[in-house]
Amino acid sequence: MNTSTITPAVARVQGLALVRVTGADAVDFLHGQFTQKIRGLEGAVRACGYCSPKGRLLAVFRAFPMTDGAVGLLVPASIVEGFVKRLRMYVLRSKVTLELAAASIAVATGEAGAAALAAAGLEAPQTGRTTRAGDAYLLGLTPAAAVEGFAAAGARTLLVSENTLSDKLPVVEETDDRTWRASEMAAGMPVVLAETLERFTPQAANLELAGGVVFDKGCYPGQEVVSRLQHLGETKRRGALALFDAAAPKAGDAVYFEGSETGAVIDAVSLDGRTLVFASVALEAAAAGFALAPESAAGTPAALPYVYRNVLKD
């Protein structure tokens, strides 16, 4: 068997940056900026969205509690500088400090990942929970669906350390973060990259289905648009996952249905001539499959770990 097709139990994540937020007003300030609750974060890890006033996503990230009352934000490294700069614009007189912190990050996936953690004396946290082990934070992420050759099914754990990770962990180094990116796609979790800033509403990328939006927390930038879409009913676009025998498209590239443009790529990763693509597409394309070019065949749909629905009405 070609070992490159085997999903590593634990893989390094190079494409995430850690933002450490401190100050007496940090929690209240962050709570008013994002699609997810930051108050009551103790012991939890939550997916969050950051929107423009028009309700378009500027970032998708995780928030978790750190020591000394700090809040950690794990943000795609390619957009983190703009993310921090924008947040700082709104701090005004609040007692809030945002700073980039050095961090070693890895992801453990599936049963093999849980076994690797156990062998290193670490216990995988429950979904949505954060635990500590020495100077490392273990974040229990939402489970992924199985995608053969790309993602192992089941629980996922992010390990975040401001020092080095345990040398007992069999961490695989990857230059393209394919294990992390594929596991996020297989969990139905969208990402916003530099190419897709302000391209998607949260619903068009399935963020509320993936647990990244709540509708009872009060105002945040874009909240009126996001809430109105939810109360009107089903969005016209959804995130869909498919496999192709083709090279990977870039984030933001157009995808097609019956020869016409139907949406855009959220993320894609290739391995051994096959490509896994997560794209925001019209509902009919989500159901029947989308293509990477007007005249090419649709990809093979891959399962997501949730069903399309309106979380307020179903």
Automatic annotation (TrEMBL):
Give the UniProt keywords, A-Z.
Answer: Transit peptide
**Domain of life, per lineage:** Bacteria
Q: Which InterPro entries match?
A: TrmE/GcvT-like, YgfZ/GCV_T_CS, YgfZ/GcvT
Keyword Transit peptide in the entry? The reply is yes
Query: Which PANTHER family does the record cross-reference, listed alphabetically?
Result: TRANSFERASE CAF17, MITOCHONDRIAL-RELATED (PTHR22602:SF0)
**What is the name of the protein in this document?**
Folate-binding protein YgfZ
Q: Which organism is it from?
A: Sutterella massiliensis
Name the lineage: Bacteria, Pseudomonadati, Pseudomonadota, Betaproteobacteria, Burkholderiales
